[in-house]
Request: fold
Amino acid sequence: MHVIEARELTKVYGRGENRVEALTGVNMNVEPGEWIAIMGPSGSGKSTLMNLIGLLDRPTSGSYTLDGRDVFRLQDSELARARRDLIGFVFQSYNLLPRESALKNVELPMVYAGVGRKERRKRALGVLETVGLAERAHHRPPELSGGQMQRVAIARALINRPALLLADEPTGNLDTVSGAEILDLFEELNASGVTVVVVTHDAEVAARTRRVVELRDGRIVAGEPSEVV
Amino acid sequence: MGKMLRIAGMSLSGLMVNRGRSALSMLGIVIGVFAVILLTSLGNGVQEAITGKLTGVGSNLLLISPGNSEAQGDGPLAARSASTLTREDVEKVRSLPTVAAASASVPTAALVGTKTIPMTGVDPSYAQIRSVDLAAGRFVEHSGEVVLETAVAKDLLKSGPKDAVGKTLKIRGKSYEVVGVLEVVEPAFGPPVPETSYMITNDALALSGAGNVGQIVAEARSAGSVDRAAKEIGARLKSAHGGTEDFNVETQKDLLSVFTLATDLLTILLGGIASISLLVGGIGIMNIMLVSVAEHTREIGVRKAIGATDTDVLFQFLFEALLLTLIGGLAGIGLGVGVSALLPEINPIIPTSVTGTSIVLAFGVSALVGLVFGVLPAYRSARLEPVKALRRE
Reply:
């Protein structure tokens, strides 16, 4: 079973003269345990593709199956639950809640999933341990370095054991050393079985992955066998 | 349940971050609820003061007025000119077993020198029935005696109450001895205690040239027999008047209900005025919540990206508005109850009475204000699209 199975995904913004086709008939399969980069220059449609894959936005047409579920026709609330249970997001600017401790930030997705307090704490500490930040659990984001904040964000993304870890330019705000450490972490996670998709324009980041899907002008131009079929 | 509690916790920490701003927007609700509590407590206080005074005057009191006749309008003139009550009626009322005492009441005016003073002709028992207080002397008992108001005594005789007693007045050529001077009547709520001087009924009738008495006041034997006395008086007078009911028998209860209606209206009016400030406070809450939602757009996007549903976000901001108004409401209630308790200490004339109903109402209304004015901002936050919300810096 594919983690992602996208067929003829098309996204159109605006109408009439302002009509822009950001994505045109994209087909894409991602298998469990893959470690993929989606690459392309700005304006290539990679952000649009990430938003569609991450269920943050709806396609204009096409079909999309995530972890065996047809998510195309889901209601807003069902989409929210699918994001919660199936996807872990990692953003370029971390997007942590600045007033809450690292621990509370990691617990947040479990709050929405309705997990009890003790269980939340136990699991959050466990995942913080995995990303190597157990001793920083009670620090707030402003007291952490960029690399540490991104580790907290990754812990938060992993907490509900998602089918897919989706990262948008995860090293974009980091120095080379911290960036490399984050990529090391992704590699470790992938080795332990987590499916990782990284959206980036950085060739060095892409070089660390096992497969690179290249986008140009809203179409996949390389790295996707199903596109050729 | 635990999830909702945690979301409410988020709302609370959201308020704590902007403590100053939260407190300021809460102030609107505090003042609104405070005003509602205080003003309704004043309204209730006035009502209780009136009720208290009325029962103090004597709940045994019965007033028989001429009525249902051709005369229209109120006041002594209308009553006198059209009065259907006679001196014999007074005797009949007095002779009833349920009636302890009865007196005529003949409103007239007396010309003393160049001055006209209001004068009422009554029977000696009037002093007891209406609890008339005297500053000096005694109440009228015989023809040729008058009891004056303090102001009238001072004006006519140029003397204080004590010195006035024993002096003589000439009214229409007839001499009257001043046997007493009335206590100055404190301005207070209660049935109309007329500002007038008193003489014996027959003297007043002779003076005014009227044949009938203006009004009969009677006292029932006990508070419990008031209704029976009213019925007996009604039946007795009806048969005496040849079967026509050309009079009204009013009891204290009737008077009370009139005043209660008036003060109820007063309370509602005051409460209504105060509600306007509560409304303004609510708009303040809505304003601050809209700002809060706008400020947290990106955070809302993040929450949605990691799995918060529209409902989760809606509740977070709705709770925030509710917390603001409920905390503000509690503070307002505390302040209102406190000031209500303090006011009579400062000036005993100001009557206040906080009722449980007004507290529950104020609390309920402030919760409602939070809901109503919180819904729009909360709904706006819930409908934010995650993609757009995340893009916001």
